Amino acid sequence: MKVLVVGSCGAGKSTLAKRLSEAMKLPFISLDQCYWLPGWVRPEREFWRAQVKEIIKQEKWIMDGNFQNTFDLRFPASDVVVFLDFNRWVCLGGILKRRFLKNRVDPLEACGEQITFDLLKWVLWDHEREGRQAILNSIIEHQKKAVIIKSRRDLKSLEKIIKMIET
């Protein structure tokens, strides 16, 4: 089984993916861990895409992360897409909580949590206009089974989410 967990920054993709990984006994792949170099440096595009091509070859996984520049690779490779479709204010709350409580599930080496203008712009404006639609378009284009979660309350029933993934 290959499960892709997507949604806006701060939605809780890594937290859910890690919980699912433990419950379903599937390897957890954090794309943030694979992507970001120390100091929040981005890798070269071709290196990054080659890395993702290798990662998705694994027999099974639960993978979190957006990185729209690899949707064309990851969506076809996945069996199920779990989309955390939360409003911008919920996601902003998640970012603030992660920053100030320092409770990131997948801490990044030499990348301290930071809140930048670009991050806020993405969460409060761009994800709603572009990111959300890119996810929905990819689900349709690749004819993927999708589990769409609309509230934090729905995240509490891990068993229900697993049942939706497996059926």
Question: Explain this structure to me?
Answer:
The chain has helices spanning 13-24, 31-35, 45-55, 71-77, 88-101, 117-141, 152-155, 158-166, and strands at 2-7, 28-30, 61-64, 80-84, 145-149. The protein has 167 residues and is α/β, with parallel strands linked by helices. It has one domain (2-161): Rossmann fold, CATH 3.40.50. It has a 5-stranded parallel sheet, with helices on both faces. Helix 5 (88-101) crosses helix 6 (117-141). The radius of gyration is 15 Å and the shape is globular. The model has no long low-confidence stretch (mean pLDDT 92).
Helix-strand pattern, N to C? EHEHHEHEHHEHH
CATH architecture: 3-Layer(aba) Sandwich
Instruction: Please estimate the helix content.
Output: 40-55%
- Which structural class matches the secondary elements? alpha/beta
The CATH homologous superfamily: P-loop containing nucleotide triphosphate hydrolases
According to CATH, the fold-level topology is Rossmann fold
